[in-house]
Amino acid sequence: MTKPFNPVEVAAVQAAMERAQAGQASQLGPDPALHSRDDELRWVEAVLRHRLSLHSLGRPIAVRTGDDDTHPLVPDGVRFPAVALSIPFADRTLDFLATYDDRRRLTFDLLAPCDRCSKPVPTEEINSLEDLGDYLLQARDGLGGSPRLRTSPAHAADCPSRGN
């Protein structure tokens, strides 16, 4: 891991260390509610901001959202695209993919290059600031990767990491 340079990564590492010391995650409360279909991208952004506690960083954090034309929104879905989110910084960008899991729960995956084909794929499920800190530190046994890693259509066609 490279040293965290941006305020989100610094806060994530701090939150992960606090969770490790306390033995429990911070309580966020329920996700923001979706009010209309027209607001879906803004709602997904609001949920990411809520789960990563971006409002608590004391400065505005930009989040870009858009449709991801590579991944489906729901498992085995083809009609609706997943949501791509990015948090840009001067030196790099944190890229996330928002999809629904098998339990119809909105989940966020950090996108990173595949170890074998170098394509950006869902690498780790990140649903809290502490999860992001654990990923950055590679510190928690619970880091198990994203369940969507092997099924991601973003892998190169001949990538051995791509499952069925």
Task: Explain the overall architecture.
The structure is a single chain. The protein has 164 residues and is of the alpha+beta class. It is built from 3 helices and 5 strands; from the N terminus they run ααβββββα. It has a 5-stranded antiparallel β-sheet, with helices on one face. β2 and β3 (93-100) form a beta hairpin. α1 (7-22) crosses α3. The chain starts with 6 loop residues before the first helix and ends in a 27-residue tail after the last helix. The model has no long low-confidence stretch (mean pLDDT 87).
Characteristic key phrases:
3 helices, 24% strand, 164 residues, globular, single chain, alpha+beta, 5-stranded antiparallel beta sheet
Summarize the structure.
The chain has 164 residues and is an alpha+beta fold. 23% of the residues lie in helices and 24% in strands. It has a five-stranded antiparallel beta sheet with strand order 1-2-3-4-5, covered by helices on one side.
